[in-house]
């Protein structure tokens, strides 16, 4: 794993975008993308650039089951407002939270990934070492599937919803097997509350208890950190 440490998340986000640009110059056509607070500075760098993404395809990691794309808590909404509405892509894929048949939806999404092999996958990491919604214990060979959210995640999300019953209980998530097939992976992590997970991912044993630790086995991973998230590395 190639580890890069920056003074702050703005510099780190710019660097991540530099790597994406280099990849595009070398023929990358498909980006795997994440939501959450971590990739925001990278999306800002993309939006503020004069780079044209209209020949690019994106495939997002996850979406809440039951969530409409125009719900401002949906990952589709996040992607439109942070990136796609400002920088049009050729095609953008996010799991369909409103799909009637979850099995069909996961099949459809796995076909999307098979038909558009991911050149560069952008990842954040959870405090428990999750990537996508692949929580501790997730199999390393899984494809996209419907997964229950942990109680922790449900409780953390409750603040965004007027009614506790509206908080999603399930998500569609790209599996770790699919993530590992990406040609290149950029994992970004910022803030002290990610320092333990980052340390375990890079220096700990490869174990399902820390899903991101499997990235040690991928041939081309760049870990992009700020000083706080790197503070527990030896
Ligand atoms: C988001 C995703 C998650 C987040 C992770 C970190 O699409 O798949 O794994 O990357 O939970 O979230 P933030 O960036 O909000 O700390």
Mind explaining what this structure looks like?
This protein is an alpha/beta fold and 234 residues long. It has a single domain (2-226), classed as Rossmann fold (3-Layer(aba) Sandwich). Helices cover 30% and strands 18% of the residues. The protein is built from 7 helices and 10 strands. It has helices spanning 9-25, 40-47, 75-84, 102-115, 151-157, 176-180, 195-203, and strands at 2-6, 30-33, 57-60, 62-64, 91-93, 120-123, 145-148, 170-173, 184-189, 221-226. The chain has a 7-stranded parallel beta sheet with strand order 1-10-9-6-2-3-5, sandwiched between helices. Strand 2 (30-33), helix 2 (40-47) and strand 3 form a beta-alpha-beta unit. Helix 1 (9-25) packs across helix 2 (40-47). It starts with a strand and ends in an 8-residue tail after the last strand. The model has no long low-confidence stretch (mean pLDDT 96). Belongs to the glucosamine/galactosamine-6-phosphate isomerase family. NagB subfamily. The active site is at residues 62, 128, 130, 135.
Can I get a quick summary?
This protein has 234 residues and is an alpha/beta fold. Helix 1 packs across helix 2. Fructose -6-phosphate binds next to loops.
Overall radius of gyration:
17 Å
User: Per the principal axes of the C-alpha atoms, what is the gross shape?
Assistant: globular
Write down the CATH topology: Rossmann fold
Which ligands accompany this protein?
Answer: fructose -6-phosphate
Average pLDDT metric? 96
Element-by-element helix/strand order:
EHEHEEHEHEEHEHEHE
CATH class: Alpha Beta
**Sheet with most strands:** 7 strands, parallel
Strand portion, in percent? 15-25%
Adjacency order of strands in the biggest sheet: 1-10-9-6-2-3-5
- The CATH architecture name reads 3-Layer(aba) Sandwich
- How far the N terminus sits from the C terminus, by CA atoms, comes to 14 Å
How many strand units? 10
Which stretches of 5+ consecutive residues score pLDDT under 50? none
Give the helix/strand class.
alpha/beta
Active site: 62 (proton acceptor), 128 (for ring-opening step), 130 (proton acceptor), 135 (for ring-opening step)
Function: Catalyzes the reversible isomerization-deamination of glucosamine 6-phosphate (GlcN6P) to form fructose 6-phosphate (Fru6P) and ammonium ion.
Pathway: Amino-sugar metabolism; N-acetylneuraminate degradation; D-fructose 6-phosphate from N-acetylneuraminate: step 5/5
Protein name: Glucosamine-6-phosphate deaminase
